[in-house]
Write a structure and sequence with these properties.
Blueprint lengths: L10 H5 L5 H14 L6 E5 L5 H6 L5 E6 L2 H10 L5 E5 L11 E6 L10 H13 L1 E12 L1 H8 L3 E5 L3 E10 L2 E12 L2 E12 L3 H11 L2 E7 L12 E7 L1
Parallel strand pairs: 1-2, 1-4, 2-3, 4-5
Antiparallel strand pairs: 5-11, 6-7, 7-8, 8-9, 10-11
Helix pairs in contact: 5-7
Amino acid sequence: MDSYRDLSSVYDELINEDVNYEEWAKFILDKCDKYEVYKDTYLDLACGTGNLTQFVSQDFKKTWAVDLSPYMLSKAEEKLRGKRIKFICQDITQLNLKDKFNLVTCCLDGTNYILDSKDILKFFKNVYNHLNEDGIFIFDINSYYKLKEILGNNIFNYDDGEIVYIWENVYEDNIVNMYLTFFIKDGEMYNRFDESHREKAYTNEEIERLLLEAGFKLKEKLDSYSNLKASETSERIVFIAQK
């Protein structure tokens, strides 16, 4: 199954109901000010269709955006054509760019898609090596609590008349296997496509240990894109680490 091939066409319509990217970008830029990050070079990892990229990049002189899906990158390039953004199709665990950055982000649980802690460590080390001294890395994860207790072995559905989906999860060995069936209205008919995704549930302690092992200094651990400290029932954890 070619993930995101069909989903990319309706991704923004679905995700923008749940995520305020402009507010997330403001949070990130405020943290750049707090840690005195020179707004010169910015790297957005697992950038998807460029929703976060478009807002954060406005404050930077040069932006690179990386994603594994050519379909999502195509939508991002279409959306941000004419901007000073370089798009790269690359696996973030194999990150190899000929540049360094003052800010790196990986948002909307891109890190959970890395299913092995050894690859998480490799990912963190690669990010570290792509940062300038004192640069910051801001990323989030779907929390262990959310993946196990909320998504878990549950079924969800959505229907707005134009887009319908059924989302079934199977939780096993700290991995949520997500099976989604979409029906997209096309005139009097609905076109069907299927998607499958997998996310690994990591504890905060494991993420912190791997960050430190990669060389980072952990600066903050927050409840989503707020200034509230993360708790045991936080559904999205934001980590801010510095080189």
